[in-house]
Amino acid sequence: MKSLPNRFFITGTDTNVGKTTVAALLCAALDAIYWKPIQTGTRDGADRATVMRLAELPRRRALPEAYRFAPPVSPHLAAQRAGIRIDLRKIKLPAIAAHENLIVEGAGGALVPINSTQLMTDLMSHLGLPVLLVSRTALGTINHTLLSIAALRAARLDLRGVIMVGKPNRENRRAIEHYGEIAVVGAVPLLKKINRATLLRVFRRNFDRKVFAP
Questions:
Q1: Are 40 and 133 in contact (CB under 8 A)?
Q2: Residue 113 · residue 76 · CB < 8 Å
Q3: Has 36 been annotated as catalytic?
Q4: Catalytic residue among 2, 36, 192, 193
Q5: Which residues of 156-188 are buried (b: 16+ CB within 10 A; e: fewer)?
Q6: How far from each other are the two terminal CA atoms of the chain, in whole angstroms?
Q7: Residue 187 within a domain
Q8: Could you list the residue range(s) of the whole structural domain that residue 102 is in?
Q9: Is residue 2 in a domain?
Q10: pLDDT in tens, 16-38
Q11: Neighbours of 141 (CB within 10 A)
Q12: Residue range 82-109, pLDDT digits in tens
């Protein structure tokens, strides 16, 4: 019997929480293809380019976005300013080989609106992938993380675990696991230098490999 590929949707408790670094780490560790369906803020650079650089992915393994917008604002507002509406029917899982691993990165947090009636959770449901939630380790993370967990579960998504980014905080991690009734399956410390070798080392040391076993 062939093993199933590792395919995950990466969401976060907020914007700039570390989703792209985590996506790059998992692409490197799992030899996965990267895809960000909706990208805003391209005037400041796209996350696709960042992941390619950090994980040392060839261009063919970092797929183009379904929607790209220049302003660094919420997808629904960026699309509104561009005079279009983001249509989930036009966002389909890429036609990649059955054995390939895939990391899909969302835009902003779990409840970011993508049009007048749908949120990022609707995109997750539409794609049907298991979800990993990226959160900070700092003060305030317990509330933000528990709220995001509640939202993901209310949407009946397959939440597989939390990945915490930042200076280690044992008490915050323990609280999230206890009150959220969920495992923290990975931790990314503050890194002075981020490259493929560093990301692979963090994965080996700080991630639960059973979650990512094929």
A1: no
A2: yes
A3: yes
A4: 36
A5: ebebbbbbbbbeebeebbebbeeebebebbbbb
A6: 12
A7: yes
A8: 7-206
A9: no
A10: 899 999 999 999 999 999 999 99
A11: 23
A12: 999 999 999 999 999 999 999 999 999 9
